[in-house]
Amino acid sequence: MGPEAKRSELIYEGKAKKLYKTDDPNLLVQEFKDDATAFGATKHGIINQKGVINNRISEIVFKLLESKGVATHFVQRLSPREMLIKKVKVIPLEITIRNIVAGGMAKLLGLEEGLILKEPVLEYHYKEDNLHDPMINEYHIKALGLANTADLKVINSVSFQINNILKSFFDRKHLILVDFKLEFGKHKGKILLGDEVSPDTCRLWDKTTKEKLDKDRFRMDLGGVEDAYHEVLRRLEVGN
Ligand code: UDP
Predict the structure, then answer these.
(1) Which of 2, 29, 179, 211 could serve as 7's disulfide partner, Cβ 3.0–4.6 Å?
(2) What is the mean pLDDT of residues 36-58?
């Protein structure tokens, strides 16, 4: 199925994306919306052109990760807002990797934003909006059957591998990768990175000024949200 492929039935609508069936049962179309939510969807807004920018940024990142041997659900970008992806059975976990303290970790542990961690921290959150994605540990995951030991081992090592790849990639773009969130799914028995990788799901700071160039501008009403997303894409497109 190529760019001419037609999407059919809408099968899922989330906060920032929609998923459609295609004529191939193994493939879906992921459409990026301009909607933005924060604080467990209690705050909602529209970031102009966000869908178009995040589709393109995710394409660049997925291609980079694939080139380094990370298996992802990305097949190809179809249009400004659409990406063709492999259909996965979603593992209901959000994997957060942190290099620098910010957001939820600063709040949870009473730490100052900007503290550089001695080593990256990996957190698991149970993907359940109604509960605001509570943090859980490996025992919860195994006891509840959310993922088995073998899958978790892959998820952990791939997540740290992604952190290494993205930290140096963003560094070359004069951006600091503060933290980010990943989601994984299973396709034909193989664990694939899913969802998106964008300023909605990563905290990115300018290396010199430490200016926030991500969704925190929306969360904290800092203004210049759209410009920040554009700036990240502009930097990523240099040399791509
Ligand atoms: N994140 C995300 N989706 C979520 C929660 C967090 O993409 O539902 C991203 C967020 O943008 C940040 C990282 O995961 O890059 C860590 O977020 P944190 O746990 O600090 O949560 P928040 O500050 O959003 O409450």
Answers:
(1) 29
(2) 95
